[in-house]
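Q: Got a minute? One more chain.
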Amino acid sequence: MLNKNPAWRYVLVIGMLLLALVYALPNLYPEDPALNISATRGGTVAEQTRSQLEQSFRAANIAAKSVVLEDGQIRARFNSTEDQLQAREIANQQLGANFVTALNLAPATPDWLSAIGATPMNLGLDLRGGVHFLLAVDMKAALDKNLNDLVQTFRADLREDKIRYRTVQADIGRGQVQVTFRSTEDLTAAEAALRKRDRELVFTTSSDNLTLLVGISEIRLKEIREYALEQNITIIRNRVNEIGVAEPLVQRQGADRIVVQLPGVQDTAQAKEILGATASLEFRLVDTEGDLGSALEGRVPPNSELYYSRDGRPVLLEKRIMLTGDHITGASSGYDEYSQPQVNIKLDAKGGTLLSAGTKNAIGRRMASVFIEYKPGTEIGADGNPVLVKQQEVINDATIQARLGRDFVITGINSPAEAQNLATLLRAGALIAPVQIIEERTIGPSLGKENIELGITAIQWGMAAVLLFMAVYYKAFGMVANIALVANLVLMVGMMSLIPGATLTLPGMAGIVLTVGMAVDANVLIFERIREELLEGRSVQQAIHHGYDRAFATIADSNITTLLVALVLFGIGTGPVKGFAVTLAIGILTSIFTAVVGTRLLVNLIWGGRRVQSLPI
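A: Always. Here it is, folded:
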């Protein structure tokens, strides 16, 4: 018999609606204004700290919903943003500089929903509030670093091949490495050996045939820029995770820009300090043969460089870098046997091998840890931003007692807070190239709340208009379409909450409003087709059957083309455009499902397989 629902249709529709409803429920629980207090700037998060903070809130008549210790952080929830801001002032006064206090919004999802992975939709910066940064990556510093690495590599390779050379130095201005020899035979042998090791380098010879000029090919330059950008994105994500920001957005923009959005965070100073920090380490041997007095007078040995420690003491170090911070995989602060702060370092396999080989014949010599940081200087660049200045200082220099491996410690640090800060930056990773914040925007939670309220109001008015039109024009069939429209909205919210990485933005809410209007298009096509079948003299059951079957091709064709446009917008668009494309694409899929499968289930259930003489359509 025509228009009978098979069992799979009941299972599919009811199962999809229940699943969507469960995962949409967390959105009914508003987020709480919260404080995230962590020890990434020094100090220790302990139960005693949490208890003291809770007592301070109570003494100041601040009604905290909860103050708990979670994942090594204190999370305090409040009823209003006013209590949140007042609590932050108290926390900063009580805890001091050893703790990071970040304003955030904490989800209030019940435990039973959290247990099954149900979470509210990720809200974009325009809805939730937070901070937006546009970072510029200093590609020149990345290229300069690559040239300096080539200098160290060439020296090691030439020594390994037993080829004598006079000097190996980087010409930063011309973007090349100059290797000078005593004879043309040595130059020819060196060029053959170096070309064999790396075929993407460009080799030329000076007019005197004693200097080999080594440049970097365009392919390699492009790889260096891409690597610097992608690695910086990864490292910045790690740093954001260190301060406990939920649903951060870190993505590239153009050839040398990185967009960072931290929803729920209002403290821009703390965020800027973490993002812009460029701390790195280099380990070099102390030059014990060079004359420090001559170096202070300007006569620095050719294979050495003059550095200063934090207390102003001059230190003469070899140019050869034994190890860089790129190989650090773990770092934690602690104390030595004299209760002095130290940083425990763990290296990757390659770093352990390099350090082991470098210290094999250096037992009894001193090794220095050089701390490198880039900070904005007084000079203004062509782009209107301050030029970053490289600052270097010796943290400590200690005698190598035994051959070092993948685990060692750094001592000579001034305070536990400094040790904790250094460990945090090294653990998150040293930036491949310095970054500079060239754009900064802060969106308050009140503005985000207003955007949400206006967006919901627009959706409600749009829904009301469509529901009224369908009920008046298509009567009982219009009510079926209205039920499908409500189900479509539940499915959209459920899918947005279920899909990892999907974020609802203000343009995304516009996409929902548009989808509400488009969702009934498929029902209009079906209902009009049923009317035509009835006018042609077909029976009620045949009209319903042919109406759904023959309208499907038109529905699929029109919606697939719109879906392709949404996919293109998502692929090439920026943040706001992507938000619109996500909700549009999801809305198209859910509207096809509710119109073709959902309404057919209801129509068949009410009128299918029965002796009906007419339809209320």
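A: Residues 7-26+444-607 form a domain with the Multidrug efflux transporter AcrB transmembrane fold fold (CATH 1.20.1640.10).
Q: Perfect, thanks.
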